[in-house]
TrEMBL record:
<keyword id="KW-0175">Coiled coil</keyword>
<dbReference type="Pfam" id="PF25990">
    <property type="entry name" value="Beta-barrel_YknX"/>
</dbReference>
<dbReference type="InterPro" id="IPR050465">
    <property type="entry name" value="UPF0194_transport"/>
</dbReference>
<feature type="domain" description="YknX-like beta-barrel">
    <location>
        <begin position="218"/>
        <end position="303"/>
    </location>
</feature>
<feature type="transmembrane region" description="Helical">
    <location>
        <begin position="7"/>
        <end position="26"/>
    </location>
</feature>
<feature type="domain" description="YknX-like barrel-sandwich hybrid">
    <location>
        <begin position="75"/>
        <end position="211"/>
    </location>
</feature>
<feature type="compositionally biased region" description="Acidic residues">
    <location>
        <begin position="402"/>
        <end position="413"/>
    </location>
</feature>
<keyword id="KW-1133">Transmembrane helix</keyword>
<protein>
    <submittedName>
        <fullName>Efflux RND transporter periplasmic adaptor subunit</fullName>
    </submittedName>
</protein>
<feature type="compositionally biased region" description="Acidic residues">
    <location>
        <begin position="386"/>
        <end position="395"/>
    </location>
</feature>
<dbReference type="InterPro" id="IPR058639">
    <property type="entry name" value="BSH_YknX-like"/>
</dbReference>
<dbReference type="InterPro" id="IPR018130">
    <property type="entry name" value="Ribosomal_uS2_CS"/>
</dbReference>
<dbReference type="Pfam" id="PF25984">
    <property type="entry name" value="BSH_YknX"/>
</dbReference>
<dbReference type="InterPro" id="IPR058636">
    <property type="entry name" value="Beta-barrel_YknX"/>
</dbReference>
<keyword id="KW-0472">Membrane</keyword>
<feature type="coiled-coil region">
    <location>
        <begin position="98"/>
        <end position="139"/>
    </location>
</feature>
<keyword id="KW-0812">Transmembrane</keyword>
């Protein structure tokens, strides 16, 4: 199995970076300040793979959102809820003003009465004309026929107008009967777009009232444009409480919505820093296996599910000397000096290139990356500034001396 290591050398000193599997660690530095050799050591607990998982910010959202649209031709008389209110199915949300509709209804009903009278008159007129036609002379019958046809046309027109007016009346009656708009779901009022309310969680919706359903939740996250590849649709995710690190929920990543970008100057990765002044972020969701214990609007961390967590201490193989025979590591003793510490190895993880340390080390111990110049009794340091030698010092502008050359050497075992 090929294993790669990268080494960065700087003239006047040495910085070694071991890249084994997915772990990246700075190695020890050999420097000489006032004739004292120093070795940079690292805390074992910080090499725990779980501490290196990238986290993204997330917010608990409902899987369903109901947007209530207001009729453009109607005026709202009263709003019965406010943002943040909890509502049930049937809870009254707002009431339309029905005064104008009531007036129009009464006018339509009067029009129906007029049409009814007109219809009866036309029917009577037609019957009388047909009676007179039978008694009329032959040369007068044509005139009666024309009058009868005209009256019949007017009758059909009147009947059509009555049916149309009846539909109009029915619609206005429904408007009055349904003047109070009620909730169709159980949820929480997120926003009311009446020009005065402010969204609870911010919304781009143009709906008059937006209600977030209670019950099943999902997690909404955002990923920076530089880290889009970190989110793969269908991959397993872990949602972690910000309050209790041990409280987690499992779920599955959805695809990143790259159609809608949000410009910002925040890096959404927890604990990350960036030299970029502006960037774009994109939304994605985590569909939860269970949302028990989550609260709507709760802020959480999102991270990849890398499988079963490794318990105990695991170290990159590069830190272990003589792994195949008598393994040991370079550690700091209680006097701040380097010593060789024998360790007992357990399982080997071929995916992360790490050994399980069964005994010999504690998470509170400090270790150094093996290099040829290390010796027992050498002074160990935790401060990176202590490892910078006079030869690696910066000039007045804070830049490295131009004579220092940086080269990258990649070796493959």
């Amino acid at each position: 199995m090929a294993r790669k290591k990268k080494i960065l050398t700087i003239a006047g000193g040495l910085i070694l970076i071991a890249v084994i599997g997915t772990g990246v660690y700075f190695g020890t530095r050999k420097t000489e300040t006032n004739n004292t050799e120093l070795a940079y050591v690292y805390r074992v607990s910080l090499m725990n793979p779980a501490s290196q998982v990238q986290r993204m910010a997330g917010t608990v959202e409902p899987q369903e959102t109901w947007e209530v649209q207001k009729s453009s031709d109607r005026e709202v008389e009263q709003i019965l809820v406010k943002a943040g209110d909890e509502v049930k199915v049937g809870t009254a949300l707002f009431v339309y003003n029905t005064e104008q509709t009531q007036t129009e209804l009464e006018e339509a009903q009067l029009e129906i009465e007029r049409l009814d009278g007109e219809t009866e008159n036309l029917k009577t007129q037609i019957a009388q004309l047909e009676k007179e036609k039978k008694k009329a002379a032959e040369d007068e019958k044509f005139s009666y026929t024309t009058q009868i046809q005209t009256a019949q046309t007017d009758l059909k027109k009147s009947e059509y107008e009555k049916k149309a007016k009846q539909v109009e009346i029915s619609q206005k009656q429904d408007k009055i009967a349904n003047a109070t708009v009620v909730s169709e779901i159980d949820g929480i009022v997120k926003s009311i777009n009446d020009g005065s309310e402010t969204d609870m969680y911010s919304s781009d919706s143009n709906a008059f009232i937006t209600i977030l359903a209670t019950g099943d939740y999902r997690i909404k996250g955002k990923v920076n444009e530089q880290n889009l590849s970190e989110i793969q649709e269908g991959e397993k995710a872990i949602v972690r409480s910000r309050v209790d690190e041990n409280q987690t929920w499992s779920g599955t990543f959805t695809a990143v919505n790259t159609d809608e970008a949000e410009n910002n100057n925040n890096n959404m990765y927890y604990g990350a820093t960036s030299t970029e002044t502006t960037s774009s972020s994109y939304s994605f969701y985590v569909m939860l296996d269970s949302s028990d214990g989550l609260l709507l609007g709760q802020h959480v961390y999102i991270e990849k599910d890398l499988g079963e967590e490794q318990s105990g201490i695991w170290l990159d193989e590069g830190y272990i000397v003589n792994a195949d025979s008598k393994p040991y590591v370079w550690t700091e003793d209680n006097k701040g000096k380097l010593e060789k510490r024998d360790v007992t190895l357990g399982e080997y993880n071929e995916e992360t290139y790490q050994y399980e340390i069964q005994s010999g080390l504690e998470e509170s111990d400090y270790i150094a990356f093996p290099q040829d110049f290390l010796e027992e009794g050498m002074k160990a340091t935790h401060e990176e500034s202590e490892t910078i030698s006079d030869e690696e010092s910066t000039d007045d502008t804070g830049k490295m001396e131009e004579s220092e050359e940086i080269s990258e050497i990649e070796s493959e075992e």
